[in-house]
Amino acid sequence: MFADYSLAELGSIFVMQGFSGLILFSVYLLMALGLAIIFGQMGVINMAHGEFMILGAYVTYFTSQFFLNYLPPLFPGYFFLAMILAFIASGVLGMFIEWVMIRHLYKRPLDTLLATWGLSLILQQLYRSFFGAREVGVELPEWMMGSVAITDTIEVQINGLFVISLTLAITVAVALLMFKSRWGKQVRAVVQNRIMAGAVGINTEKVDRYTFALGCGIAGVAGSAFTMIGSTGPTAGQLYIVDTFLVVVFGGAASLLGTIASAFSISQAQSTLEFFLSGSMAKVLTLLSVVGILMLRPQGLFTLKVRR
Amino acid sequence: MENDKERGLESSLRRKLLMGMAAIPAMALMPKYAFGAGPATAEVNTTGLAVTDTEVTVGILHSITGTMAISETGSVQAEKLAIEQINAAGGVLGRKIKFIQEDGASDWPTFAEKSKKLLVNDKVAAVMGCWTSASRKAVLPVFEQYNGMLYYPTFYEGLEQSKNVIYTGQEATQQILAGLDWVSKEKKAKTYYLIGSDYIWPRTSMKIARKHIEGHLEGSEVVGEEFLPLGHTQFNSVINKIKLKKPDVIYCAVVGGSNVAFYKQLKAAGIDLSKQTLLTISVTEDEIDGIGGENIQGAYACMKYFQSLDNPNNKEFVTEFKKMWGEKTVIGDVTQAAYLGPFLWKLAVEKAGSFDVDKIAAASPDIEFTKAPEGYVKIHENHHLWSKARVGQVQPDGQFKVVFETAELIQPDPFPKGYQ
């Protein structure tokens, strides 16, 4: 399999594939971060995560349309506003859903699977009714397209760099929020012992609502970022949900660090295998190795040490 | 709600009608009804289909929910337009066409179940429907068992022929061979990179393409072949391979939403489709709507129909379609093929002088439809259409500019020798 390429080519293959893997890593991490917060911290199996992403994508689409039609000079910068709006839209919807549905189910985590699956079907149909069944294309400003050539064979894509830095920024922000802020401490306290947290005066209901909203908001931002690479349609969210759960479960549900490590290992394995084997085969092998590792470590790569 | 009421009313009518079957010979002698000026029902319907003196019922069976809804919406719109136009022109054998629409929900068992419902309970005279090969394969045994008639609009992999199906799209050879011949001659292409989604249609198509490239195009070779899971959105690795291999032609059968990711990432990776030749058999105006014209401009597609075709039939079709479904809608290859279905059925019924499925199937070969938006079509003995192959180049506005069309109609050949 290496014989087809010269040494110089092999070198650039590894650089390029490494970079592709890095982009894939960012994509996986963006998808999984919101879920890791909701699933990992709150124990809610949110099957509608993909639909929250797609809401972000639609918000981005409408923002781009608005700027194209009414504010063309500002178009190059619309994406930043779109991401903020996507965060707000998905976050607010998340807050609403938490209030209507999720808060009644905290004691029955498996039921959240069914309830949010129903929610995802409802949301898909709503998107179809409001935005139409056809996929919409989000127009990107010119500066986001194209690539930077480093050598003849090595090129770095600008939107790839953009996704990577966005992921980095969000991950750092979430980590700071969770581990440094007062609110983060409250979240972790509620996760570890809800009754005790309530007893020491933490408003657990409020904490739950904002945590859920934060997870959904991040999903919205992820969806907004994906308009650069993927398609936006009512059912597009379904494409991401399996991979997202894979990353979170593999990493160990309650651990943010685990999510990062698992996104990294899955994406690099996928990207390297993809080059030397076919795309479908790479996926099969990746899945098989994840299954194998989970059989040895059912709790995932990283987990909190808890007394049982 | 209203629909249900209508349907209830209609079925009670039908029940009355069936009960009154004995009276039919007498009815045949009665004066003609308001809509009908056609022959008596007893003569044209000997198999108990849903045909009355004034109405005939057909089925529309597509996915309006689920992942295929995006593609099949256009087909439904085209079929409804065709039915409305036929009705406005006096119907079929003096009878107004009514339709019952069922949702296959992108789920193949559901397709089979709904087709049985249409044929057994509703007794429809014909069904316009299906899109994926998987859904067609699921309904085929039902149509053969209950002797129904299906008008199937999608271009597909071939290797199939049934008395109960009229295939109004292209089979593989009508799309693949002509396109490859053109690109080999016009672009002096020698090296080809094949890329497709991982299921039956792209795989069979690529097999035929490879045979043709290696066996019939002199000095040409396939330098890479790649299949990616349906719905895949990460093409960076494949694109890296393409960059290293530098093929003369990227030959592409990626389907559905994956296309959006593929072309956006191609562009982002610096592959300029005005310099790198790319020929696709799976991107129509519908997909470009999602991809964005600026992301795919310069690419070529081999189809039999483009919205931009310059002929009087097509101009009228496009105008009427937009009048019914909105100025912003686009019309792709399959949408046009779906539009042909009701007309071909009408012509067959009129030629046979009967709604009976056996008679229609027998009458179908050699039927010509001169008002087809694609120009002109004729049904072959093997129930596929004679059609031209055309190559179009994507313009920034998302429309195709036709750069080539075959001089003659290509004879359909669902079982090509030497290509299997």
UniProtKB/TrEMBL annotation, chain A:
Topology in membrane: Multi-pass membrane protein
CDD domains assigned: TM_PBP1_LivH_like (cd06582)
Cell compartment(s), UniProt: Cell membrane
Pfam families: BPD_transp_2
TM annotation in the entry: 20-40, 52-71, 77-97, 109-127, 158-179, 212-233, 239-263, 275-296
Keyword flag Cell membrane: yes
Gene Ontology BP terms: amino acid transport
Keywords: Amino-acid transport, Cell membrane, Membrane, Transmembrane, Transmembrane helix, Transport
One GO CC annotation: plasma membrane
Keyword Cell membrane: yes
Molecular function GO terms recorded: transmembrane transporter activity
Record-linked PANTHER family: ABC TRANSPORTER PERMEASE PROTEIN, BRANCHED-CHAIN AMINO ACID TRANSPORT SYSTEM PERMEASE PROTEIN LIVH
Family label: Belongs to the binding-protein-dependent transport system permease family. LivHM subfamily.
Protein name listed in UniProt: Branched-chain amino acid ABC transporter permease
UniProtKB/TrEMBL annotation, chain B:
UniProt cross-references to InterPro entries, sorted A to Z: ABC_urea-bd_UrtA, Peripla_BP_I
Name assigned to this protein: Urea ABC transporter substrate-binding protein
Organism of origin: Terrihabitans soli
Xref: Gene3D superfamilies: 3.40.50.2300
NCBIfam families in the record: urea_ABC_UrtA (TIGR03407)
